[in-house]
Every structure is written in structure tokens, then in C-alpha cells.
């Protein structure tokens, strides 16, 4: 937030209070007058009238200003709308690994900045792997994060596409998937597609500066290509981000033992021994597991999970499976996965080595859907549609 915006918001609230506190100020000031200093009843009446007038004016000004502010349109809270700019250059960072598919026909040259077991990063990888789109991986150091210091967006995943004009970053897993899906279906220029997902920066009601990506669940297609299935797919994708993913942390870090088990598995699949110094790997495991155990408890309360958080996890898995069974199809997308399937699969595969994942396999029927999804992703079944 700029100093101007901060000052405007802070003093705007103070000014609003002035109408209210003005009542108190005048009243206190009037009440504090020493009437003994006045010798005539007329002068006493004059002071009383003056105080009463002050109270009345203060009330009218405060009430009028409050009504004026309440009736103002809220559009003024939006400060800025921007598309993610193309960068002329990026710092040279050697990829942690390269993922190549011989059948790749996308024409894209991509680099994914990620944490290996971040569920949002796993969503993006599931999409790329399913469609057989090649990419480089840069494993971001979770402590120093040197490899993404160039980016004003400080979260992962960040996907960078190398274009003739330069380097085009794409931020947020859902925006990345929507933009690439639009590109695959309509073959519009990727730069033009990214412009359809602007960042909106605004100040919310408590004065905090927020940023949101508009349209991130929408595919930018012609009206005749928008269907009931696409709308349903969009609602499920939102459910993954707004409901399902929030059940993971309280379950993965349910106990201290499970938290340390999870971080050791993260280290193994993320190749932390190869990518980071030993001291840093050990620091991440010890501090990270301890911190996430405590954070998991807070998230349990924040998202109103059941006392036994496993029950909430089972409920969400069962809800997903019952919805697929009601359709009478193999996947939520029918006989082949759609973006909702890929989102749920990506989130779940991020915890595949954890006790929580083993428990949902045992206590729900999620395996009936999960392993066919894994086969579809690993065999790159979507490559034929690129």
C-alpha cells in the first residue's frame, strides 16, 4: 500500500470518527465550562444554547458524512488493474531437472518454479504431464528463495513461457491452467491470452492491500464453446481451491510424528539433499515440521474441521466420489479427465507418501478414481488433444 493510500484510508476513518467524536468533544468541552464564572442567568442560557448548537451541528455533520460514505459506490477501492508484463530477461538459473515428451506439439518452452510437494504446484505438473507438454523445473529454495527474487509475485508455482517478445510469467495454479487450456483449445497467442487474466490490486474494508487474479477459473473461449460441462468443471475447480485443499494440512500434520514423517518424505521426493545444503535441509525438516504441526491446529479451527480431522478428509473424498458415481462415468469429466479431475488429482498426489493418504485409501473409495487418474496422467493421454 502506498503512503498516500495508507494515509487516505487512515485519515479518512479518522475524519469519519470526527463527526462522531466531535459530539463528544463539544459535549465535553461544553460540560467542562465553569458556569460559576457567569453571573447572570442570560449568560448561562447563552452558553447552554451554544453547547446545544454545537451538539446539533456535530450530529448533523457526522450523520450526513456517514450516509454520504455509505452511499458511495465501492468501485473506489480498486487501485490498479494490470496484466502480467513480459520480461526482457531473467536471471540464469540451472533447472533442477528437465521433463521432456517426444509427442509434445504445444510449441511452448516453459519453466516451472515450484516446491515439489506443494499441492498447487502438483496441480500444474499434473496438467502439463497429462497433456504431454515439456517443461523445465526449478526447485525453489524454501528458505532463501533466491531463484524467484526477480518476481514481484512471491508464491509458487510460477510458470514462465519463453516467447519471441521475452519471458512471460504466469502466476497462480488456477490461472496457469486456465490460460494454457485456452491456448490449447483456441491457439491464440499466449501473450494475448494472459491479458485476459489481469491482476486487480485493491484495498479491502479493513485497510489491507489485496491482489486477486480475475477470471482465473474461466477459459477464454468463444460464446458458442461455453457449455454446461465447462461451467460445472469451473465450480469443481473452485471447490478444490476453496474447500478441499484446506483439509490437507491439518491431516498431514495431525501429530508431531506425522509432521516429521511428511517432511522427510518431502525431502526425499524433492531431492533436497541434491538441491540444498545439508544444514538447510535439516533446518527445513526440524523447523518446518514443528511449525506446520502448530499451524495445522489453527487451520483445523479456521476451516471448522471435525475434532478428528480425518473424518473431514473422508467426508470430502466421499463427496467427490459420490458426485462421480452420480454421473455414472469414470471421471468427473466423463470417460476422460477434465480440469476438475486434474485439480483433485494434483492436490492428492502431493501427499501420496503421507499417512493421511494411506488412510483415505483404506477408509474411502478414492482409489477407484485415483489410480486410473494416475495412469492417465503418467501415460500423457491428453497429448492427442494438443
Summarize the structure.
The protein is α+β, with helices and mostly antiparallel strands. The chain contains 14 helices and eight strands. Helix 3 packs across helix 12 (339-349).
How many angstroms does the end-to-end distance come to?
42 Å
- Number of helix segments? 14
Strand order of the largest sheet: 2-4-3-5-6
Are there runs of 5+ residues with pLDDT below 50, and where?
A: 1-44, 63-71
Q: What do the pLDDT scores average to?
A: 84
The largest sheet is: 5 strands, mixed
Output the structural class. alpha+beta
Rg, alpha carbons: 28 Å
Strand tally is 8
Percent helix range: 40-55%
Oligomeric state of the chains present here: single chain
Shape annotation: globular
Order of helices and strands: HHEEEHEEEHHEEHHHHHHHHH
What fraction of the residues are assigned to beta strands by DSSP? 5-15%
Provide a descriptive summary of the structure in words.
The chain has helices at 3-31, 41-71, 119-130, 173-186, 190-194, 228-242, 248-252, 256-269, 272-275, 278-302, 309-327, 339-349, 355-363, 367-378, and strands at 78-82, 97-99, 110-114, 135-139, 158-163, 166-171, 199-203, 209-213. 32% of the residues are buried. With 386 residues, it is an alpha+beta fold. Helix 11 (309-327) crosses helix 13. The chain contains 14 helices and 8 strands. The strands form 2 sheets. A 5-stranded mixed sheet has the order 2-4-3-5-6. Strands 1-7-8 form a 3-stranded antiparallel sheet, with no helix packed on it. The chain is 53% helix and 10% strand. It is globular and about 50 Å long. The longest helix has 31 residues, at 41-71.
Amino acid at each position: 500500500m502506498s503512503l498516500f493510500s495508507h494515509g487516505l484510508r487512515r485519515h479518512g476513518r479518522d475524519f469519519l470518527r470526527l463527526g462522531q467524536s466531535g459530539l463528544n468533544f463539544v459535549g465535553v468541552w461544553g460540560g467542562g465550562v465553569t458556569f460559576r464564572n457567569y453571573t447572570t442567568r442570560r449568560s448561562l442560557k447563552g452558553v447552554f444554547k451554544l453547547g446545544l448548537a454545537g451538539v446539533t451541528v456535530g450530529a448533523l455533520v457526522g450523520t450526513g458524512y456517514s450516509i454520504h460514505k455509505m452511499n458511495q459506490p465501492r468501485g473506489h477501492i480498486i487501485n490498479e488493474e494490470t496484466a502480467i508484463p513480459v520480461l526482457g530477461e531473467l536471471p540464469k538459473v540451472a533447472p533442477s531437472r528437465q521433463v521432456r515428451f517426444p509427442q509434445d506439439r504445444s510449441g511452448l518452452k516453459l519453466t516451472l518454479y515450484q516446491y515439489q510437494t506443494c499441492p498447487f504446484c502438483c496441480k500444474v505438473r499434473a496438467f502439463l504431464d497429462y497433456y504431454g507438454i515439456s517443461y523445465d523445473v526449478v526447485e525453489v529454495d524454501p528458505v532463501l528463495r533466491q531463484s524467484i527474487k526477480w518476481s514481484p509475485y512471491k508464491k509458487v508455482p510460477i510458470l514462465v513461457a519463453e516467447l519471441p517478445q521475452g519471458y512471460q510469467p504466469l502466476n497462480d495454479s488456477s490461472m496457469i491452467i486456465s490460460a494454457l487450456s485456452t491456448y490449447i483449445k483456441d491457439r491464440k497467442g499466449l501473450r494475448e491470452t494472459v491479458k485476459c487474466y489481469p491482476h486487480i490490486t485493491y484495498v479491502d474494508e479493513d485497510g489491507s492491500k489485496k491482489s486477486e487474479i480475475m477470471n482465473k477459473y474461466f477459459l477464454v473461449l468463444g460464446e458458442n464453446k461455453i457449455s454446461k460441462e465447462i461451467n460445472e468443471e469451473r465450480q469443481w475447480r473452485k471447490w478444490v481451491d476453496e474447500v478441499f485443499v484446506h483439509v490437507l494440512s491439518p491431516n498431514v500434520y495431525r501429530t508431531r510424528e506425522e509432521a516429521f514423517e511428511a517432511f522427510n518424505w518431502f525431502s526425499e521426493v524433492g531431492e533436497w539433499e541434491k538441491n540444498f545444503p545439508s544444514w538447510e535441509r535439516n533446518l527445513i525438516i526440524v523447523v518446518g515440521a514443528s511449525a506446520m504441526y502448530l499451524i495445522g491446529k489453527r487451520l483445523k479451527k479456521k476451516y471448522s474441521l471435525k475434532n478428528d480431522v480425518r473424518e473431514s478428509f473422508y467426508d470430502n473424498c466421499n463427496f467427490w466420489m459420490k458426485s462421480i458415481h452420480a454421473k455414472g462415468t469414470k471421471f468427473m469429466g466423463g470417460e476422460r479427465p477434465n480440469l476438475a479431475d486434474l485439480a483433485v488429482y494434483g492436490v492428492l498426489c502431493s501427499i501420496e507418501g503421507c499417512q493421511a493418504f494411506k488412510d483415505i485409501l483404506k477408509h474411502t473409495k478414492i482409489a477407484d478414481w485415483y489410480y486410473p487418474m494416475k495412469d492417465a496422467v503418467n501415460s500423457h493421454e491428453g497429448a492427442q488433444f494438443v
